[in-house]
Every structure is written in structure tokens, then in C-alpha cells.
């Protein structure tokens, strides 16, 4: 945060000089324009064939001198501004680390197979964000093959999101109708939120659409009276304020533009759930996790350099320090072996014993190569009967 504040101060200084230079230039040019217009009017008012008087020549010479001086002064101030702008770049270089190679382990991306996985993740991100042409071009250059059907859901989702941004809910309602059974099983509130927006839109049009709003409510809203009782009551109460306007009613919160953003988020969440996907793309999740982790890695790197410790990455598949990424980046349960007191990894996964207790693979290997007793109960069993657990 201190680094950001330091750069921010330099930016404020630059912006202040920009404003000062602009105001000074406008005043100077405005004064010169006034003098030149005055001189022009004076010359135009003279007879066509008359010669310039000594006074007019003197005034013209003075104005020209002022124009040259003002131009030179503005140019000098502009040149001086370059030094202030360059200080911002120096401040960035001073307060931020330009090279992150020392805190990155690139062994994960050295093989062609893993590079293809990375390319595929990037392509999927483009498809999910609606940039289908960019994703297809990248897939073509990377030699990746994508099934057309795998892209169709993303195209439809992004098309519906664009319609919602434009205030059109019809395509979203049609999507809800096609997936109503699954949405009902999920307990989704998407359809109600869409009909609420339609109803409120009619209410906002005033008394001329009150009858249409009432008809719409009778057709589409009764089925939500049980699951969304309070919201349903609020919507019905808005009919009392149609003639006076919703702005001054107790239900003006229903006019908040946030409701449109909320319904878009709800649609995206439900659509991804039906597709078996997370709301955010894997690439976005990785980038966000990296943004959280990077400052911690830079800090530990500086400490290790001060203590002359080389190589912050170990041979184990883990970070040199523990970083809390929060619940948003936690997608499965975390297992810690009660025997070795170590967190499970891909190479050391959790295993389920016949008796139902769970220990890590390494702990199982250390117990015995033949029959053994469970560390938590007296049941004897064979290590071969243990099964790997997948979270």
C-alpha cells in the first residue's frame, strides 16, 4: 500500500501541473486573442486605402512581441513538464518489482503437454467471456481442437447477458422455461427476479400501463406468492403508488439499477451450475489467486535474500509459505493426515481404510507392507484394500 501511495503522490503532482499549465495557457491565449481581435477591428474600421499610423505600427509590433514571448514561455513550461512525468516512471520502478522470475516456478510449463493445457484454459476463458473469434483464432494457432457443441452454451449465455444489459429479459425468460425443472430443483430465484423487473418496468410507465401491470401480475406472479411472500407483497403494494410515482414511495428500492446487475449475476451463477462449471473461469481464478499470493512471495523473497538463503522453491509441490486465498478460491475439502500431520497432495492423496478411517498414502506405506491394525481402531486389514479418496 505504501508503494501505491508513493506513486499516487507523483501522479497527483503531475495532474496538478497539467491543470496549472492548462489554465495558464488558456488565460494567456485568451488575452492575446482579445488584443488581436481589438487590433483587427481597429484596422478594419479604417478606410481601405489608408496607411498604418505610427501608433498602429507600434501596437502591432508590441502584440507580435507578446505572441512570441507567450509561445516561448508555454513551450518552456511544456518541456519542464516532461521531467515531472518521467518522475512517475521512476517512482514506479522504485516502488514496484519489475521482475517476478525469482518468485515463479516455471517447471509446470516446460513440457508441450502442459503448454497445450494452458492454451486450452486461455481459449476457454475467451469462449466464456464472449470473445469467440479470439478463442477460435488462438485454438487454431495453438493446434487445439474444440467441439462446436462445447462453445454453444457459452455463446447463448453471453448473448443473454448482453440482452440483460440492454434491459431485455425475454431471452432469459425463455432460457428459464427450457430449464425450469432443474432450476426448481436448485431452488433458483432467477425466474422471479426476471418477472419482477418486467412488472416494475410496467409500473414505471405510469397510470397508462397500470392495467397492463395488473394483468401481468395475475398471469406470472401468483406462483411466487409462497416462495417469495414478502417480495410478492411489496410488488402488489406498488400498484397503490402508480399515480403518485414510485420515486417517493416506500418501495423506491425496487427502482435501483442494481437489480439488473443482480439478475445478471444470478443468471450467470445458475447457468454455470447447470453446466457443471464455476462462475468464474479457471483462468480468472488463477489470476486472482496469483494477485493475492504474489505480494506474500515477494516479501518472503526479500527476507530470504537478507539471510542469504537461495532458492525459495523446494522440490515439494507446495508454496514456501502458507497463503490464505479465502473461500472464493476453495473448491474442495482439504485433508490433513492425522498420522503424519501433513496436508494431502496429488502425490500423497488421502486413502480410506476398510474400517472407514482415512489417512494419507505415505502414512499407509509407513505402517506396514503386510497386514496392520488401524491406528484408531483394532481392525486388522491389508494395505491393498485401502482406496484413494477423491474430493
TrEMBL record:
PROSITE patterns found in the cross-reference section: CTLH (PS50897), ZF_RING_GID (PS51867)
Superkingdom per UniProt: Eukaryota
Main location: cytoplasm
GO biological process, one term: proteasome-mediated ubiquitin-dependent protein catabolic process
GO molecular function: ubiquitin protein ligase activity; zinc ion binding
Coiled-coil stretches: none
Domain RING-Gid-type: 337-377
Zn-finger segments (RING-Gid-type): 337-377
CC annotations in GO: cytoplasm; GID complex; nucleus
Places the protein is found: Cytoplasm
Family annotation (Pfam families): CTLH (PF10607), zf-RING_UBOX (PF13445)
Leader sequence segment: none
UniProt KW keywords: Cytoplasm, Metal-binding, Zinc, Zinc-finger
Stretches assigned to the CTLH domain: 153-210
Protein name: Uncharacterized protein
Native source species: Artemia franciscana (Brine shrimp)
Amino acid at each position: 500500500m505504501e508503494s501505491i501511495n508513493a506513486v499516487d503522490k507523483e501522479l497527483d503532482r503531475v495532474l496538478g501541473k497539467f491543470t496549472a499549465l492548462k489554465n495558464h495557457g488558456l488565460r494567456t491565449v485568451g488575452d492575446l486573442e482579445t488584443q488581436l481581435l481589438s487590433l483587427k477591428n481597429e484596422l478594419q474600421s479604417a478606410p481601405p486605402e489608408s496607411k498604418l499610423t505610427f501608433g498602429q505600427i507600434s501596437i502591432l509590433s508590441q502584440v507580435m512581441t507578446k505572441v512570441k514571448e507567450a509561445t516561448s514561455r508555454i513551450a518552456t513550461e511544456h518541456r519542464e513538464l516532461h521531467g515531472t512525468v518521467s518522475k512517475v516512471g521512476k517512482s514506479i520502478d522504485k516502488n514496484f518489482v519489475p521482475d517476478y522470475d525469482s518468485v515463479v516456478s516455471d517447471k509446470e510449463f516446460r513440457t508441450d503437454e502442459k503448454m497445450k493445457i494452458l492454451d486450452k484454459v486461455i481459449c476457454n476463458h475467451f469462449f466464456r467471456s464472449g470473445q469467440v473469434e479470439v478463442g477460435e483464432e488462438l485454438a487454431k494457432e495453438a493446434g487445439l481442437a474444440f467441439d462446436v457443441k462445447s462453445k454453444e452454451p457459452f455463446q447463448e449465455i453471453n448473448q443473454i447477458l448482453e440482452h440483460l444489459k440492454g434491459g431485455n429479459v425475454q431471452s432469459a425468460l425463455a432460457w428459464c422455461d427450457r430449464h425450469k425443472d432443474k432450476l426448481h430443483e436448485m431452488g433458483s430465484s432467477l425466474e422471479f427476479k426476471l418477472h419482477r423487473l418486467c412488472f416494475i418496468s410496467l409500473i414505471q410507465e405510469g397510470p397508462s400501463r397500470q392495467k397492463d401491470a395488473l394483468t401481468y401480475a395475475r398471469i406470472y406472479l401468483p406462483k411466487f406468492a409462497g416462495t417469495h411472500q414478502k417480495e410478492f407483497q411489496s410488488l402488489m403494494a406498488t400498484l397503490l403508488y402508480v399515480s403518485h410515482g414510485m420515486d417517493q414511495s416506500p418501495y423506491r428500492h425496487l427502482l435501483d439499477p442494481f437489480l439488473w446487475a443482480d439478475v445478471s449475476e444470478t443468471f450467470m451463477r445458475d447457468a454455470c451450475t447447470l453446466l457443471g462449471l464455476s462462475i468464474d473461469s479457471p483462468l480468472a481464478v488463477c489470476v486472482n489467486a496469483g494477485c493475492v499470493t504474489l505480494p506474500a512471495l515477494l516479501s518472503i523473497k526479500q527476507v530470504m535474500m537478507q539471510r542469504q538463503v537461495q532458492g525459495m522453491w523446494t522440490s515439494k509441490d507446495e508454496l514456501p509459505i502458507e497463503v490464505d486465498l479465502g473461500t472464493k478460491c476453495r473448491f474442495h475439502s482439504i485433508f490433513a493426515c492425522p498420522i503424519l500431520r501433513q496436508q494431502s497432495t496429488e502425490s500423497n492423496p488421502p486413502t480410506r481404510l476398510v474400517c472407514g478411517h482415512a489417512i494419507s498414502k505415505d502414512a499407509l506405506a509407513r505402517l506396514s507392507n503386510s497386514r496392520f491394525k488401524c491406528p484408531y481402531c483394532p481392525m486388522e486389514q491389508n494395505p491393498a484394500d485401502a482406496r484413494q479418496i477423491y474430493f
